Amino acid sequence: MKRRTGIAVGTTAALAVTALSVVAATYGGSADHDQAKDQAKDQGVILAEGNDRYPSRTAQDWVTYADHAVVVTALDDQAVEPDTSDPDNPEGGSGPIMRKVTLRVDKVLWSKDKPAHAAPSTFEWDAFGWHQTEDGQRVEMSGAHEPRIEPGHTYVMALQWQAPRCPAGDEPIPGEWRGLGGESTIPYDHEVLGQGEFEGETQSGASAEESALPSADPNYALRDELAGEKADALAAKLSQATPGTPESAEPAADPCE
């Protein structure tokens, strides 16, 4: 059974620059971090800790911040190789290697009244890939307490559309679909919530139910509440939830004119 900590986690849809800070947090000196490192070594997966973009534990969180909740299947992925032309990092160096994962939307479970963008049929997802050591070896990497997003597996995701941005002095950043936080992606292989790939390993629906946190736990989330059920149960909760007052969890974007 996997032990889950109370540390907030970064979404696998994080930008590469975010992943760098997440990896740094993984190697902190706390007992929880040390245990996570030891567990990762045993599993052959490095687990990265970080901060959520937005709250994502409850149905109210999802309907407050997401545009859509969808069932997706990961089709394929590709490594985002280090830029060896960077004068500050000529050999790529050590650190995280991200992936671009192609996801197909199989079903839209819920949409807000006025979504920022229509739900996609397919889209690209920024996901953790590997941690590259100084000698060039790569170890698989995942956000802690969340799926790694691997081809062949199915998930339920809360998606938020991030409009194109044009930061002053930098290249424009195209619009993209992003998650909310570590609890906004739930494994869903064979139409069972909690069953499938999680932290780079495959778990059964029974093991997901067994490891679900009790409702009194402060980290209790939709993934715990609905483990073993079908996505229709989640869709029903979202349809009944009332949006809250959004918090500004990220710096203001630089909109393109």
- Which bin fits the share of residues in helices? 10-25%
Q: What's the end-to-end separation, in Å?
A: 50 Å
Largest sheet: 8 strands, mixed
Quickly count the helices: 6
**Shape, principal axes of CA atoms:** globular
Relative strand content: 25-35%
What does this 3D model show about the protein?
The protein is α+β, with helices and mostly antiparallel strands and 257 residues long. The protein is globular, with a radius of gyration of 18 Å. A hairpin with a 2-residue loop joins strand 9 and strand 10 (201-203). The strands form 2 sheets. Strands 1, 2, 3, 4, 5, 6, 7 and 8 form an 8-stranded mixed β-sheet that branches. Strands 9-10 form a two-stranded antiparallel sheet. The chain has helices spanning 16-26, 31-43, 59-65, 205-211, 222-225, 231-240; strands at residues 45-48, 68-80, 95-111, 122-132, 138-143, 154-162, 176-178, 185-187, 196-198, 201-203. Residues 1-34 and 36-41 have low confidence and may be disordered. It is built from 6 helices and 10 strands. The protein has a domain at 53-82 and 100-138 and 149-240. The relative contact order is 0.20.
What features would you highlight for this structure?
single chain, 257 residues, alpha+beta, eight-stranded mixed β-sheet, two-stranded antiparallel ribbon, 6 helices, 20% helix, disordered N terminus
